[in-house]
Write a structure and sequence with these properties.
Elements (H helix, E strand, L loop, with lengths): L1 H19 L2 H43 L4 H14 L9 H19 L18 H34 L5 H22 L4 H37 L21
Helix pairs in contact: 1-2, 1-4, 2-3, 2-7, 4-7, 5-6, 5-7
């Protein structure tokens, strides 16, 4: 099944490369196509994330109230999610759907791409890694490769930075620290992967940042405001459950 998907992705890339005349541009066109198809799902995910932020005070209240009773806390959390028609993992779906393409592209670039596949001469080989280009050509011949790897890290950090804008000071600090760590890890990972993978990720992440700045933030603010108004008067009732008493047995 996985081999079939890799071959299918290669056929799509080969078709696009024949259409636009360049393999690197074919990767960019593929990225734009995937992001465009996923846009409705991404917007739904955005609304889900905004609702999560709006519901966070109520969730925190539940967690504090039932801190000494994990089982009861889980029951009340599930009830709360059900009443508010909220799926905590809904925001991860667009990312999960893109992951197979990311890893399949990695396989395509490692073994199936023609040796002459390049990006308009800017990248002489889409299968070459940053470390490989640096070893062969030095900094002067590998600076574009290095630039794409740096962008790999920065475009991992920027969305997390933007998402932290409406968080508390403590949450913002934690998010930024995590963002720096994630950016460093992605740059380390990107150092040895085919540069075509970096081209795909950078294009996709740049699309995401632009979308977040001009669309996502407005959608999130609108949803947060509506959810905050809806839940403002929602009171969490602490229901005390009666313990079941053993029934008396008749004596013979």
């Amino acid at each position: 099944m996985w081999d079939w998907f890799i071959n299918f992705l290669y056929q799509i890339l080969a078709f696009l490369a024949g259409l636009v005349g360049d393999w690197g541009l074919a990767i960019i066109v593929l990225t734009f196509t995937i992001r465009l198809i996923l846009t409705p799902l991404t917007l739904r995910s955005t609304k889900s994330s905004a609702r999560m932020q709006a519901l966070q005070p109520k969730i925190k209240e539940l967690q504090e109230r039932y801190a000494d009773n994990p089982q009861r806390m889980n029951e009340e959390m599930q009830k709360f999610y059900s009443e508010n028609k909220f799926n905590p993992v809904g925001g991860c779906l667009p990312l999960l759907l893109q992951m197979p393409v990311f890893f399949a592209l990695f396989s395509v670039l490692q073994g199936k791409l023609p040796a002459e596949a390049h990006f308009y001469g800017i990248l002489d080989s889409l299968s070459q890694s940053v470390s490989g280009a640096l070893a062969l050509n030095g900094i002067a011949g590998a600076w574009v490769f290095i630039l794409l790897d740096v962008a790999f890290g920065l475009l991992t950090f920027v969305p997390m930075y933007l998402n932290s804008a409406n968080s508390s000071e403590e949450q913002r600090s934690q998010t930024l620290i995590m963002g720096v760590v994630m950016a460093a890890m992605m740059m380390w990972f990107g150092w040895s992967v085919p540069v075509g993978v970096l081209l795909y990720y950078d294009t996709s992440a740049a699309w995401g940042v632009v979308q977040q700045l001009f669309i996502t933030n407005k959608v999130m603010e609108s949803v947060r405001q509506k959810e905050a108004e809806r839940t403002a008067n929602q009171v969490i009732v602490d229901v005390v459950r009666k313990e079941k008493k053993a029934r008396p047995h008749k004596k013979n």
